[in-house]
Design goal:
seven-stranded antiparallel sheet, binds iron/sulfur cluster, binds flavin-adenine dinucleotide, five-stranded antiparallel sheet, about 15% strand, alpha/beta
């Protein structure tokens, strides 16, 4: 047996001693110098562990008894440097992956380095508890959940190690995300070609665990075909290198293991030949075919697809590919689904890199998603029943063009003349692929209890049988009263399809019936029952039926050789439970939401609980770059501070699974605390989770129980006391960052002393200024709605807007509250504090004041995105009804109005060039969430000779009051440092900075020492 000589800290050393292990003189060094430390271990060929041939299965009751065990947690905390999370909320957050299953882990550790993993494995071995490695947790069929000690590699174990461009090889740690690796490789002209749809959050360890595959597997193969070696820790903590079989060092792994594996390969060669489907897409079972030929076999590849059941990967050596410089896309249109399926086998003969299916339902659903509408309109012609996206890629552009021409010809020969839309533009090709990649997510945006369920979604069959198989499976669905949407990897006979089932009701029953009939068909076609997503809980049960009993005994032998005590992820691949055991489901028998009186209207989803249940754990919110979502995760890297983590916590609390009053507990407050309400998820979460709105509901519920602090009241009520406070503006402005008053303010109100506060202005904006007092004429009317922040702190923006609108020939009107007491307010500051009733009363006031303009259809124009867009968004939850709907349709941001008028050919706004020739634009999160950035760019483009560059930034980190709060200051700055501040610092002194959000401008000024302006001011300066 291998013993770790430098074990984890002092406790580990004494534990080894206590077991009577003796040191042997032979040492080996396996860890590469690029990583932070090296490890030495010794071999002892008298292994008692490997002598065990049949694993004594983990007794489920014993593992259950350790769930949340505080003694175990204390021991782990003593000996590990990483996080040890044993509380109910954390366990809840790690009890699901993107499958229908939910199993509570014993506890969670987030190892800081490899030594932590080693230490945890040794403790687990000693205590006899199962372990479960985890990456992004995006698996679809339950392999990443279990009653085990879950080890999350994604936060810290994500470094890139030795890289050899000439050898096209790189070593990586398991928690590294695919897209991050590819970004790093790009300057070297290389990439890792296993292009899973979840590439922006899937970890390489998880991809190897699942033997993942992507759209271009036709050309590049699966994970197993692109891996050279794995360094891993085994269940007892011993380390081993798994690479080419013919170079395997028996002393580099537990005694006897190599020989046992080789013997197994030899013995089972014939059976493997007989039973393994002859298809690229076979990811079921263990890859024991790697053991058959000692000359070409690879032990690392044996571990690929092992789903955390054999070893913990600590490093992976990947085989890289050159980035093909030229890509062309042909979008083939088919009048029937059958035609598309039947044509695939002909199309693959042209040598494409990918042939991917998008069916009619998917096209229609994508069209409904604002983010995708324009792209879909760009590549879909007419009303096809199905599309095949055919990509040609390679070194030679002319060759790709020739192949695309052949595709057009072939389609005509098949009877589909003019059936190809050619896409040459690289950016548009990427946009098309984004729609295809979002396929599953698009389907999951369905509201209600019926959801597309993953369990037969990746069976693969030979291409000649594809049309017949899909037709037959569709009939099976119909027989069971359901339907399925088809998409994905037509090229390799692996189409994704999920029947729509209600897992809270009769879903399990139908699921069993459908899977039985499907597998019978797959067997007839000599297909593969697990063609992409692995075995997990949904497939493992069927191995015996698909591979035969002898093969399954061989799989068990492999498991026992690696993990004799059965500690690694039990119940997956071998010795699995029934896939329809409802006690393992997310919606277990008896699942119900607790009654709750909600403050907001959630009827669109059928209730607050249903809105929360929309999160299917697909993990899109874990994406590290691009877009807005989710700033708090991007700076913390913690599951807790992630849209998914929050939604899961809410779901568990709302269904009583986290104990009494969990919804209003401090743990829930901590979970929601760092959501900045940016609404990034509203647009970018594929299932449309609107966590900002959920936070409002949560805060309402929480503060009903716990009341409000002085600081919370001070911020929320600002619009109410602003008219009075403005009178003392000169005094209030005496507070300066770091000064005595600031320190006092931090102590009393929790407002960070490190921040400047907005300055009260003596020349505040008065609504009378907006009102055009001229006699009625034939000019079109607009209402200028000035918010609290622009009114009291930056009135020049409102004046600029008024000037521009007037110059453009509009008659500008103002609105006052009927009570005349104080200006109108959208209620945002109340919403941000969860004071829903106060916000509702502001909304009512606003609706009453605007009634006459709503009835006349007058455009209502606002300047501050978070305020104006409240009229469009939250008003409908506060005061659902026709009037709110009408207001939502008329409420426009200043730039939206300008862009709209220009597009309609009504805008008369002569502008002259500015002195500055460049502008750098930062979008407010809500502008992005409501897709208004294009309007802003179009508005800026009206200024002659101005070059505009948009900062690819997420949240500025200020997010209303968030960045002013002492407890959030550091995080706020970290968020700004992600993209915004580096871009601001890099901007030349004569570059104009444009930001329409009050808090964004403040962050830029406060932390970036540059002055940013509202677009209305730029337009006013440019008035001819
Ligand atoms: C919307 C959506 C689209 C998807 N599209 C695709 C697709 O195109 N192609 C595809 O193949 N899959 C796809 N998947 C499935 C999934 O995203 C991929 O399999 C992905 O590679 C899993 O990565 P992960 O980091 O989330 O792994 P996890 O789910 O965390 O883990 C996967 C498995 O690997 C094991 N594992 C993780 N780390 C280690 C380690 N260090 N050592 C040993 N074992 C480890 C785990 O125990 C688990 O069994 C999709 C899933 C979703 C939700
Ligand atoms: S609103 Fe923004 S911060 Fe909050 S969960 Fe959604 S993306 Fe994250």
């Amino acid at each position: 047996m291998f013993l770790v000589e430098e074990s984890c800290l002092s406790g580990r050393a004494s534990a080894s001693k206590a077991r009577g292990e003796t040191a042997l003189p032979k040492f080996k060094r396996y860890w590469r110098p690029n990583f932070s430390y090296s490890l030495r271990f010794r071999s002892n060929s008298q292994s008692s562990l490997l002598a065990v041939t049949k694993a004594p299965d983990i007794v489920p009751g014993a593992a259950h008894a350790r769930i949340g065990d505080s003694t175990l947690a204390a021991r782990l905390r003593r000996e590990l440097e990483g996080e040890v999370l044993f509380d109910a909320f954390s366990r809840g957050r790690y009890s699901t992956d993107a499958s229908i299953y939910q199993i509570e882990p014993i506890g969670v550790i987030v190892p800081r380095h490899r030594q932590d993993v080693l230490c945890a494995l040794q403790i687990a071995a000693e205590e006899g508890i199962p372990v479960l490695p985890r990456g992004g947790g995006t698996s679809q069929i339950g392999q990443t959940v279990g009653t085990a000690l879950v080890m999350d590699t994604s936060r810290y174990l994500n470094q890139i190690g030795d890289f050899d461009a000439a050898a096209r090889s790189v070593w990586v740690e398991p928690g590294l995300v695919l897209d991050q690796l590819n970004r790093w490789l790009k300057p070297h002209g290389l990439f890792y070609p296993v292009d899973v749809s979840t590439g922006n959050r899937a970890t390489l360890g998880g991809m190897a665990g699942n033997n993942s595959c992507g759209a271009r597997s036709l050309r590049y193969g699966n994970m197993v075909h692109n891996l050279r070696a794995i360094d891993a820790l085994l269940a007892d903590g011993s380390a081993a290198h798994f690479g080419a079989l013919n170079q395997a060092d028996p002393e580099g792994m537990p005694a006897g293991l190599l020989q046992r594996l080789i013997d197994l390969g030899q013995r089972e060669a014939q059976e493997i030949e007989l039973r393994f489907p002859k298809l690229l897409r076979r990811v079921g079972g263990y890859n024991i075919d790697e053991l058959v030929d000692p000359a070409s076999g690879n032990l690392g590849r044996l571990l690929v697809g092992s789903e955390g059941t054999l070893a913990f990967f600590t490093r992976l050596q990947l085989e890289l590919q050159p980035i093909p410089p030229h890509k062309l896309l042909g979008v083939c249109h088919f009048p029937t689904f059958h035609d598309a399926m039947d044509s695939t086998r002909h199309i693959v003969k042209l040598g494409p890199a990918a042939v991917e299916l998008v069916d009619r339902t998917m096209i229609e659903l994508s069209r409904e998603i604002p983010m995708f509408r324009a792209t879909v309109d760009g590549f879909v012609r007419g009303e096809p029943d199905a599309l095949l996206l055919v990509e040609f890629a390679g070194e030679d552009y002319a060759e790709q063009q020739a192949r695309l021409a052949q595709l057009v010809e072939l389609m005509a020969d098949l009877g589909f003349a003019d059936g190809v839309v050619e896409v040459h533009d690289a950016a548009f090709q990427s946009a098309v692929w984004e729609v295809r990649k979002a396929g599953l997510n698009i389907m999951m945006s369905m509201k209600g209890d019926g959801k597309p369920v993953s369990f037969v979604e990746d069976c693969a069959v030979p291409l000649e049988d594809l049309a017949e198989y899909t037709a037959r499976l569709t009939s099976v669905f119909e027989k069971h009263g359901t339907t399925g949407t088809w998409y994905a990897h037509a090229s390799v006979g692996c189409l994704h399809v999920r029947p729509i089932l209600n897992m809270k009701q009769d879903g399990a029953h139908k699921m069993r019936a459908i899977v039985e009939e499907t597998l019978e068909m797959v067997q007839q076609y000599k297909g593969s029952h697990s063609g992409e997503h692995g075995d997990g809980l949904a497939r493992s049960e069927f191995h015996e039926r698909m591979f035969g009993a002898r093969m399954v005994r061989a799989f068990e032998e492999v498991k026992d050789a690696f993990d004799p005590a059965g500690l690694f992820n039990p119940g997956k691949i071998v010795r699995a439970p029934r896939m329809d055991d409802r006690s393992l489901f997310r919606f277990k028998p008896g699942y119900a939401q607790l009654p709750l009186q909600t403050a907001l209207d959630w009827s669109e989803w059928g209730g607050f609980g249903n809105a929360v249940e929309m999160c299917n754990n697909n993990g899109a919110c874990r994406k590290a770059n691009g877009g807005v979502m989710c700033p708090s995760y991007r700076v913390t890297g913690e599951e807790q501070h992630l849209t998914r983590g929050r939604a899961n916590s809410l779901r568990l609390a709302l269904s009583g699974q986290l104990g009494r009053d969990a919804l209003v507990s401090d743990a829930m407050r901590d979970t929601m605390d760092l959501c900045v309400g940016c609404k990034g998820c509203r647009r970018e979460c594929p299932t449309g989770i609107d966590m900002a709105k959920m936070k409002v509901e949560f805060l309402h519920q929480y503060h009903q129980r716990h009341g409000y602090s002085l600081r919370q009241r001070l911020i929320a009520y600002l619009p109410r006391y602003a008219p009075l406070a403005a009178k003392f503006g000169a005094f209030l402005n005496l507070r300066k960052r770091g000064g005595l008053l600031a320190k006092l303010g931090e102590k009393l109100f929790g407002l960070s002393a490190r921040r400047n506060l907005p300055q009260w202005r003596a020349d505040r904006f008065d609504d009378g200024e907006a009102e055009d007092s001229a006699a009625a004429d034939d000019r079109a009317e607009v209402v200028l709605l000035v918010d609290t922040f622009n009114r009291y702190f930056e009135p020049e923006n409102a004046r600029a807007a008024r000037a521009v609108l007037t110059a453009a020939g509009y008659r500008v009107r103002s609105v006052r509250a009927g009570d005349g007491a104080r200006p109108l307010c959208c209620g945002r500051s109340f919403l941000a504090a969860g004071m829903v009733d106060e916000a509702r009363s502001e909304a009512r006031r606003m609706l009453t004041a605007l009634r006459v303009h709503i009835e006349r259809g007058t455009p209502i124009i606002g300047l501050e995105p978070s305020c104006l867009l409240t009229l469009r968004d939250e008003f409908q939850s506060l005061l659902p009804g026709d009037e709110s709907r009408a207001l939502a349709a008329q409420a426009l941001l200043f730039e939206e109005f300008i862009a709209c008028e220009r597009q309609a050919g009504r805008l008369q706004l002569p502008l002259k060039p500015l002195a500055a020739k460049r502008a750098l634009l930062h979008g407010h999160c809500h502008q992005k969430a409501f897709a208004t950035m294009d309007a802003l760019k179009q508005t800026l483009a009206l200024i002659p000779d101005l070059q505009v560059e948009v900062i690819d930034s997420g949240c500025c980190g200020m997010a209303g009051a968030f960045g002013y709060e002492a407890g959030h200051y550091d995080l706020s700055i970290k968020m700004a440092e992600l993209d915004l501040l580096p871009a601001v610092r890099a901007a030349a002194a004569d570059t104009l900075l444009v930001a329409n959000g009050t808090s964004c401008r403040h962050q830029i000024e406060d932390a970036g020492a540059r002055h940013a302006r509202h677009v209305a001011c730029l337009l006013r300066d440019a008035l001819a």
